[in-house]
Amino acid sequence: MSYHDTQQRYGVISRLIHWTMALLILAQFMALGGYINDGDHWIGNTIVPWHVDIGLLLLVLVSLRIVWMLSQRQQRPELKGQGVMALLTKGAHLLLYLCMVLMPVTGVLLMLGEGHGLAGFGIELVAESEQEMAWAIALGQWHAQISWLFVALVLGHLGAALYHHFVKHDDTLARMTTKRLGDS
Question: Where are the transmembrane segments (predicted)?
Answer without folding.
Answer: 12-36, 48-70, 91-112, 146-166
